[in-house]
Amino acid sequence: MRKIHSSNVIIYCRNFTGTAEFYRNVLELNESMRLSWMIEFMLTDTSFITVADENRASIKSSYGAGITLAIRVDDADRFHKFLTDKGTVPGEVTDYPPSTRRFFIHDPEGNRIEIWSQSSG
After folding, report:
1. Are 52 and 10 in contact (CB under 8 A)?
2. N or C: which end of the chain has fewer CB within 10 A?
3. Is domain 68-121 in CATH 3.40.50.11720, yes or no?
4. In 15-99, where do the E strands start and end?
5. Fold identical between 6-54 and 68-121?
6. Taking 90 as the threshold, does the pLDDT of residue 64 lie above it?
7. What's the CATH architecture for 6-54?
8. What is the edge-to-edge ordering of all strands in the sheet holding 68-72?
9. CA torsion, points 59, 5, 30, 99, in degrees to nearest 10?
């Protein structure tokens, strides 16, 4: 079997500027690469999300249809408060069997983002 070294989800956007600002300023992800038409944000050392301007790419936006980005954090409740304190309106934190706490938020392009953590129960 071949080893996968990294992963990158590319989101093609109508609202390139607003979506990039969301990942940079709301989720506070660091940029790892920038070109005039795309910005790559680092989730982990080997996992990235790239926001690309659909007007300068060969692929157009999916308008958030059929996409959920699942991001595991240390504590979903604390991350929910972090986002709420920034003025965003994420969904309610809920338990998901067998031992997960999670909530959802949408980026300006309409992509659903699941923020989740392991729960102690």
Report:
1. yes
2. N
3. no
4. 30-35, 38-44, 47-53, 68-72, 94-96
5. yes
6. no
7. Roll (3.10)
8. 68-72, 112-118, 100-106, 94-96
9. 100
Mean pLDDT of 44-63: 94
- pLDDT greater than 90 at residue 76: yes
pLDDT bin (cut points 50, 70, 90) of residue 97 is confident
**Mean pLDDT across the stretch 93-111?**
94
Categorize the per-residue pLDDT at 80 as very low, low, confident or very high, splitting at 50, 70 and 90: very high
Q: Which residue has the tokens 């989800």?
A: 9
* 8 Å CB contact between 76 and 83: no
Radius of gyration from C-alpha coordinates of the chain: 15
